Amino acid sequence: MKSMAEPFASILLLPPDEYLAGLKLDPERLAAAAGGLAGVSEVRRVRAWQAEAAGPLEAEARLVLVGRREPLPLPDTILQFPVDLETCMPWLDGPAETRALALVRAAAAEASLSGPVLSRVFEPVRRVLVWGDGPAAGSMVERLSRAGFPVFLARPIPDGNSSESPAEVPPEVEILDEATWLALDGFAGRFSALLDAGGRTRNIEAGAVVLCGRPCLEPAPTGFDFDTPVTSLSGFEADPKIEPGSRLVFLSGPGRAATSAGMGRLMKAAIEAGNRTGAAVFLLAPEIKVAGPGLERLYAEARQAGVSFVRVPASGPEPERLGDGRVRFAVYDPLARARLLLTPDRIVLDETLRPDEALEGLAARIGLMLGPDGFAAPDNVLFLSEATNRTGLLAIGPARGTDSADGLDREIGAALDEIQRLLAPGRKVTDPIRVDIGRCAACLCCIRSCPVQALGFTHRPWPDPVACARCGLCAAECPSDALQLEGCSDDQVKARLAALMDRPRTGPDFTPRLVLFGCRRSALPALAAAPRPRSPMDLVFIPLPCAGRIEDDLILTALVKGADGVMVAACHTDNCRTQQGGPKARQRIERVGRLLAEAGLEPGRLLFFTLAPNMGAELAGRTAEFSRAVTEMGPHPFSRNREAS
Amino acid sequence: MSDIDLDRADPGFKHEVARRRGAEGIKRCYACGACSARCPVGELNPDFDPRRLIRLVVLGLRDEVLSSPLLWVCSTCYTCQETCPEGVDFTEVLFVLKNMAVEAGCFPPTLGAQVELLKNHGRLYEITDFENEKRAELGLPPLDERPDDFLALLKDFQPETKGDA
User: Fold this and answer.
1) What is the pTM of this model?
2) What's the pLDDT tens digit per position in A12-29?
3) Residue of B nearest to A334 (CA)
């Protein structure tokens, strides 16, 4: 193994000649020039991209893959640095070879600055802790047990309003009843849960935790004050009597939309009522959800059964108290182009799950982020099925607001897959963050800023290799640069910037040199899909694992190295894997903008925006617009001074 | 239109309509509006809206529907029927509704005049020498006014205008 002091040299893999020719590059000249780059020990030319294409490799070799977007399927001790010529070259200004070489130089510099890969074997605890009760917990326990995982079921103290039936569990499952959760230490693969049952505390080691919660159904509060009988859906199902010739109103909400499963139940009850002769059945809802299994069929059946669907505002129909104490609803019906007046003889309210009362207190103790509705599901499309903000801490069924059987089934399957992946024996892990103990001031900024709660602290921060999302938010937040993200350290980003900015400017006309710091998940695919620039453009793209990895220092470095404008592109907030990266990036670019404004620099030279991976056209448009705006401002003062001196 | 009091609506009306031949599909309507968007009559007369008529039937507004003059403005172009994604044969539904309206004694006065013409002439217009001379020039045989066939069909139907149609 090489010592830390020695710079790491890389083997450069050049793509097939036809590929380079397609990019107007001369393979011979490129090979000769690349061979002379710092940090390159050897140049190999490949005929086709396969794992064997690289030829014989040492166990800890570093590869710079020219003309590749993805790494090759090689052991993870071999560090790979793909150079996506196709995506990046069209955005740079100058002769093709200069552009390609700058990109290769950037990758080689990044490669030489990567720390050695220290991989070790991690043996996770196989036991899974399941928290909750009712059918969801029962099914989860049963599936885990069948898959060979030892299971510990913690059943919370019964909740006054919950309509639970106790979970049926296999005999080998250990159960703790009337459990209160005190604390959760450790990380995915090796959690340590402190539970209390009747004054006796238990410490449970578990590799993963599944929160199931308990099914707590209740109708929305209506604030109705009148004599018309109002029942919940459960109440109606228990006592579905209808007077012949009466008017029966099924009301969804008010104030919230029914879930798919809730709407399904409501429609089933309405069909049942509609199929009996003589009753006029109305279903009042802000929206009819049919995007679930069987719902469209139920909707059609309900219409056949004579149920009249009436759309009402989200806040519910307008109630009016009549002289005899009954209620009359008034709803404007755009289809009939008139106001409908309806005096129900009985009102049935739909029910939806409410969050388990124990969940809120629990969340604070175990580092769980709750969604806006109080369930353990972040308001983010990337956290479907089972994921929470913490690795190894999963939430399914009632705990995440899922009330349908098929939804629960899907979540249980996803949870099982995740647990099998996470708790696979003999897993190899590498440390995601380098911590410089000498610099660390123990300020705990990293621990507070970690979106996945993957840092522990004993004298210094300890990033957990299994739980860490490798987003670099902690490293960006660290005020003393004590934390460095492997593969995207400050030095590496700066080296990439230096390599790409150190190109001669072309043309007699001023083409602004722009830097785009962008999330690898959104900005990189967007750039790859973007239409090629039509006017002269010089855009240096610096991919980051998350836009929140950006630091004031990096923005300033870009400007000092000659950028006339800097853009930071993040994922849309509800689509951000780290959930906080975008907002943090925005805060930082705004802060730097204020500082620079004080120094006399136009605030318009900095730009923050959000993107989705498929928004290539948007990215191209934004960039062209920004380039025009910066052209008008002219070269920025630092570079003007530098050129003058 | 003024307020619709659903307390006076007839929940059986839509079932009654749907039992008639041609109108079976009416309960399948989910008000997508494809028919209304393509109706050429609706273009000229915004009050005529197939989707709205179906809605009124579904809500059980028997009297409003059967006495509505709008039942009679359809040009029977069948565009609605061709367009409907749910197979609601709206032109046929209108025939059913018109028949039900006539049964309830609701139809426009022009319909009475048309029946009178048919009773007297077997056609919707009177055959005069003018027509027969034109036919002779073209080598066609003259037409007789023979309303008997039609009268046999009409049997003892004696239209009398009721309602506001």
Assistant:
1) 0.74
2) 999 999 999 999 999 999
3) B52
